Amino acid sequence: MFEVRNLSAAYGQSEVLHGIDLAVTPGEIVVLVGRNGMGKSTLMKSLIGTMPVRSGQIIVDGTDVTKLASHQRVAKGIAYVPQGRQIFGTMTVKENIETGLVVRGKDDVPNEIYDLFPILKEFSGRRGGNLSGGQQQQLAIARALASDPKILLLDEPTEGIQPSIIKDIARLLKDIRSIRNICIVVCEQLLSFVLDVADRLLVMENGRIVHTDTRQNVNEAAIAKFLAV
Hints:
- The protein is α/β, with parallel strands linked by helices.
- The chain has helices at about 40-50, 70-75, 95-100, 110-115, 120, 135-145, 165-180, 190-195, 220-225, and strands at about 1-10, 15-25, 30-35, 55-60, 65, 80, 150-155, 185-190, 200-205, 210-215.
- Helix 3 (about 95-100) packs parallel to helix 6.
- The longest helix is centred in the last third of the chain and has 18 residues, at about 165-180.
């Protein structure tokens, strides 16, 4: 369903992604881990199209989307929850979710969204900026799901969220995977969260994937070393 082939990207003349290869099947949660500055967020921006790639391909359900603009990639099935959430603070919860519906030509928020996020239904008329950090993260995910994606990308979803809510986010991602059977790719540093949600872990270091493992076979000590400052 989702494949990245030999992807490279650069800031000016400085290459920051070096030949990334990645394949994700429907219903699989893949987590990219690594310290800050190792290229995780750059990869996410390259996948959604806010950063141009130097070479390589991004394939969605057999279609090469590498040269498409961000909104065209969304139409092809990629949804993105950015680091820091970036919800619209002055708009209501319902209006925020509706922005994700535009690409599908829909107007009404599907009941499935509110079933996954009951707190958002309760607060549908509240401004996004008045929600807690965890509620804003749920809103950002709901907005992304409103575009009916095949691939869901999340960049540091636990950032700035209290531990009890982090467990809820982990459970939510697994529910989404079960209900929608979509590909989920997460960039994350919090190892407990990673081990909770990941089917497969990939370690990024200096713009390359240097280690990969399934959740069943993961060596926690080895992964922790990659995350150590």
